[in-house]
Design brief:
binds iron/sulfur cluster, alpha/beta, Trna Endonuclease, Chain: A, domain 1, about 200 residues, about 25% strand, about 35% helix, globular
Length: about 200
């Protein structure tokens, strides 16, 4: 069975269909992302002696696959972390959806109740050579609406696989525009973006 990635599912469901990231930004953020993942893993491991963490934890559910950045177990509960190389002021609803997809997939595949899953978003704390993360705990209980949204997304994966999202032709102006290099976009920036 062919599968669709979690990131793609979220991106094609909510982002501009024509977004084309600047490869230079993409490269720099992958390196930063790797460092942040290591920081977050160490942060959890330093919290308690009995905690065990892995990076890039693979999840697969029906037609959906994904990798949670950091997953830790402490004997009783599981901790799932989605790491973003952006700072928290650039947090997006899609980040929480991606995280909740991992929570949903973990809960379904491991037959684990949502109450024993803790979810976190980690953002880059500040621009510096030292990776440091700003970690937010997201209440899975309070995020049940998001879980409903993601479970519907998962149910509709077959329409994604059949390509119905391809070429949907929706341009969406958002914070992604300042790192987008799609030259046929009908919206043209006339001034620079102030960092
Ligand atoms: S610049 Fe245009 S193509 Fe790129 S994300 Fe923004 S609206 Fe979409």
């Amino acid at each position: 069975m062919s599968q669709v990635g979690v990131k793609r599912l979220v991106s094609e469901s909510f982002n501009c269909a024509y977004f084309k990231p600047d490869p230079r930004v993409f490269e720099a953020s992958s390196e930063k992302h790797e460092k942040l993942v290591k920081f977050v893993r160490k942060w959890f491991e330093d919290l308690r002696k009995d905690i065990e963490c892995v990076e890039e934890y693979e999840l697969s559910l029906g037609g959906l696959r994904g990798r949670a950045d950091v997953v830790c177990w402490d004997g009783k509960e599981v901790h799932i972390v989605e790491v973003k190389s952006t700072q928290v002021h650039r947090a997006r609803m899609q980040d929480a959806l991606q995280l909740m997809l991992y929570v949903y997939m973990y809960s379904k595949t491991k037959n684990t109740s949502l109450s024993s899953i803790n979810a976190y978003l980690a953002y880059s704390y500040r621009e510096s050579p030292y990776a440091s993360a700003y970690i937010i705990k997201v209440s899975v209980e309070a995020a049940k609406t998001l879980i409903n949204v993601v479970s519907r997304l998962v149910e509709s994966y077959s329409s994604i696989r059949s390509g119905s999202f391809e070429g949907k032709g929706l341009y969406v102006i958002s914070d992604l525009c300042d790192i987008c290099v799609y030259d046929k976009c009908p919206f043209k920036a006339l001034t620079g973006v102030t960092p």
